[in-house]
Amino acid sequence: MKNRQDDDYVKENQFEPLQPAANFAKTAQVNDDSLYREAKKDRLAFWAKMADNLTWNNKWERILDDDNPPYYKWFTNGKLNVSENFLDIHIKNGLGDKKALIFEGEKGDSLALTYKQLLEEVCKFSNVLTKLGIKKGDTITIWMPMIPEAIIAMLGCTRIGAIHSVVFGGFSPEALKDRILDSKSKLVVTADGANRRGKVIPMRSAADQVLDQCPGVEKVVIVNRTGTSYNSKSGRDLSWSELMADADHNFEPVTMDAEDPLFILYSSGTTGKPKGILHTTGGYLVGVKTTFRYVFDHREDDLYWCTADIGWITGHSYIVYGPLSNGSSTFIYEGTPDYPGRDRFWELIEKYQVTVFYTAPTAIRSFMRWGDQYVDMRDLSSLRLLGSVGEPINPEAWLWYHEHIGKGKCPIVDTWWQTETGMIMITPLPGVTPLKPGSASWAFPGIEVDVFDDNGNPTEAGQRGFLVIKSPWPAMLRTLHGDPERFENTYWQQYPGFYFTGDGAWKDQDGYLWIMGRVDDVLNVSGHRIGTMEVESALVEHPSAAEAAVIGKVHEIKGHAITAFVTLKEGYEGSEELVQELKSHVGKKIGAIARPEEIFFTYELPKTRSGKIMRRLLRDIAEQRDLGDVTTLMDPQVVASIKEGYTEK
Ligand code: WT7
What separation in Å is there between the alpha carbon of 362 and the centre of ligand 1? Predict the structure, then answer.
């Protein structure tokens, strides 16, 4: 498969843009350029108008406070409650009996909650939290499988004004511990176990050791999902179902300021320590509500399915906050696409009549590889719109998705955004944008982006540069939890006054943006962000490793595969057992997604004179390319010996 990041390939294969079908455009939320024009004329007035689609207890005074960049504030002194906007208001507007959340478990069990029922569950959990001493401004950690309780827990927090920090269920207990400690969580919500490909993965008992190392955690609430036993710590560990059974189903929403924190979500950066990305209430909600409505072309009768996990920003913004703020029906599935069969996703689309489907390129490439027969087994005619997110989508995967899943009739929205942006930033609008397979097209109305060269000048068409966001947007991150300096340095230092995305990109002659992926030491493995330094820190914590360098090798399905070069301490010798041991060590430290695919032992690592590991060079070695410029190397000999060691394997 040709590499999508190869811009020459794209330039040579200029596809005719695909025009929106007339029947789709006719009823679409947006079918002309009026929204773009309106936003261009007065960006802030546009966002103020979008903010009017929410219910505020107190109207804001200023749309954007940009007095103290990069600490921007939106809708200052506006007051609202998130869960009230999602639940009470919809019920008042007659959507009480509409399904809000539809769930299917791996074993085929299912559950549907109407807006009224979801409100009751959320209120009950708000009462539980309150009874356990959680107040507005406290942080709680949610480490759960993809089950409805995860969403109820998130919304329960928003009703009382507590801040949630959801940690991906696939992260290891060690990674969970770091995040609990950093966020100073007082309470953890988890499950006894998770169903995964027919097996049960223990969660609560796995977390046993690390919970004891988190003295700030006063209570642990445990959902009984799999019936897995664990040693309950009396006074601290409590059962979700018992607490909920006793809880009242009414709870007055707590009024929040637009700038009160809504959640922290940890994401990988270029150091070993994950960044606690902080989002606030009003602007975030305006951003995700608006983008969900227009990008996914919200319709009353849609059943929308985003396959992300709740532990990532996609799960936050486009499983929970975007769909529910619009009164949509959001579908969640507990399991993986290949269990019990490789037609599982298509079976679910057929069974529930899913109309809008949002997934990641890595998944699409797997489906492609498995073969069309699994898709052809099922009736996918309910689908009307498809989405892609998480990494650049290669045109082949785009075309396959369009033809085999969308049957040639569903537009595809390739949406570019980040944990930091909170909301979709670059995307087609399905009723108007002519689609070019592999390009996320251009910025959403009210969003200003460009591609800059090293000197901060906009690049010419066809010239590579760095993707920047030129002006503040409502759902932007406000800071990094506990580390404002890192916030300023990471995003605002490169081009003062502009937000630096960390992505490379180029514009074509029609103004379409082509995203090339990360330009920093961050990998994209199956659409998940993993810092090379994070994996390196985990490796060197193992007693055998003296030094480690981690790179992403281009991988056909995953985007990047993690490859590690490790130098061993005196007395250790490289062996297959040690490779396995180091791999599981990383799995234990971070989680299975960060396990290196390959580990190579080397006597030394190539470094620049200033001591920086030359990852580019290691990448070239791993991908067996010709070596580029090596003159800044401290010891060019090292390269030769590494290369030998590598090719020997
Ligand atoms: C990074 C952000 C946003 C939700 C999932 C990932 C890459 C994301 C696209 C896309 C090309 C994309 C970028 C970005 N990315 N979507 N449509 N086309 N690249 O969130 O973990 O914060 O990662 O994912 O490199 O910077 P994240």
Answer: 12
